[in-house]
């Protein structure tokens, strides 16, 4: 197992919850960040996917701390962006440039625009990506894009599908940062981690989402992945 690390996980959706729970299970210290902890913890209803309110999840994971975006970013030696892609830049700005400076930001978000219904469109593609937008906005932060091509369950337990014989892509500008993220992915159970290059490669992995969404519709399950055969 990796040496224990302090991580801030920004976002309280199923992705943020799943990643935070797995990191805590691996004995890392974790703080989940949200815009307003009091409001988030007071919500009484399940989300649109039927997941229980955050306060129920929090009661089930008492060892995980909860704070604002800024507090979670300050807390983490590494930070995970698990916010909705359309609001990621705003959430990260709330976290603070100074709190993220000098740190690795693992970006798992996708720029999905649901304004026209389902399936969503990409708000940015071809000549730019959310990963690149984040890197430009936070030049003192090392952005590593990964985990955005599978559902939350597979992110942290890849061996539940084909005994882990599928591929996770990653990209970013700093080799040392990617090596640390790759080690974290391996601790989740990923056996085939492919480094696609610098952060511009996020255009490719984010543009896999239209295929992913339609495959979900065809298969009637999100429990699938991509495998790079070579």
Structure description:
The strands form 2 sheets. This protein has an 8-stranded mixed sheet, with helices on both faces. It has a two-stranded antiparallel sheet with strand order 6-7. It is globular. By secondary structure, it is an alpha/beta fold. 39% of the residues are buried. It has a single domain (6-219), classed as 3-Layer(aba) Sandwich (Rossmann fold). The chain contains 11 helices and 10 strands. Strand 1, helix 1 and strand 2 (29-34) form a beta-alpha-beta unit. Helix 4 crosses helix 5.
Layout of secondary structure:
Blueprint: E1 6-10, H1 14-25, E2 29-34, H2 37-42, H3 54-60, E3 65-68, H4 69-75, E4 78-81, H5 88-95, H6 97-100, E5 104-107, E6 112-113, E7 121-122, H7 130-137, E8 142-146, H8 152-156, E9 167-172, H9 175-188, E10 192-195, H10 202-206, H11 209-219
Parallel strand pairs: 1-2, 1-4, 2-3, 4-5, 5-8, 9-10
Antiparallel strand pairs: 6-7, 8-9
Helix pairs in contact: 4-5
Report the strand count: 10
Q: Poorly predicted ranges (pLDDT <50, ≥5 residues)?
A: none
Largest sheet: 8 strands, mixed
How would you state the average pLDDT, rounded? 96
Strand content: 15-25%
**Helix coverage percent of residues?**
25-40%
Order of helices and strands: EHEHHEHEHHEEEHEHEHEHH
| CATH fold assignment | Rossmann fold
Morphology: globular
- Within CATH, the superfamily carries the name NAD(P)-binding Rossmann-like Domain
Radius of gyration: 16 Å
Spatial strand sequence of the major β-sheet? 3-2-1-4-5-8-9-10
């Amino acid at each position: 197992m990796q040496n224990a690390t302090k991580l801030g996980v920004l976002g309280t959706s199923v992705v943020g919850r799943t990643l935070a729970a797995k990191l805590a299970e691996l004995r890392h210290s974790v703080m989940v960040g949200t815009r307003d902890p009091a409001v988030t913890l007071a919500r009484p209803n399940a989300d649109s996917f039927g997941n229980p309110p955050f306060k129920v999840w929090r009661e089930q994971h008492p060892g995980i701390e909860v704070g604002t975006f800024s507090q979670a970013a300050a807390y983490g030696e590494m930070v995970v962006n698990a916010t909705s892609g359309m609001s990621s830049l705003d959430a990260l700005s709330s976290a603070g440039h100074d709190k993220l400076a000098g740190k690795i930001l693992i970006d798992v978000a996708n720029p999905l625009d649901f304004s026209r219904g389902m399936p969503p469109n990409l708000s940015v593609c071809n000549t730019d990506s959310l990963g690149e937008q984040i890197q430009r906005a936070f030049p003192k932060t090392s952005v590593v894009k990964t985990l955005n091509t599978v559902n939350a369950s597979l992110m942290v337990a890849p061996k539940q599908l084909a005994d882990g014989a599928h591929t996770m892509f990653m990209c970013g500008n700093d080799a040392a940062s990617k090596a640390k993220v790759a080690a974290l992915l391996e601790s989740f159970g990923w056996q085939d981690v492919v480094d696609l290059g610098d952060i511009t490669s996020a255009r490719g992995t984010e543009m896999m989402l239209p295929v992913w969404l339609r495959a979900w519709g065809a298969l009637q399950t999100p429990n699938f992945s991509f495998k790079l055969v070579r």
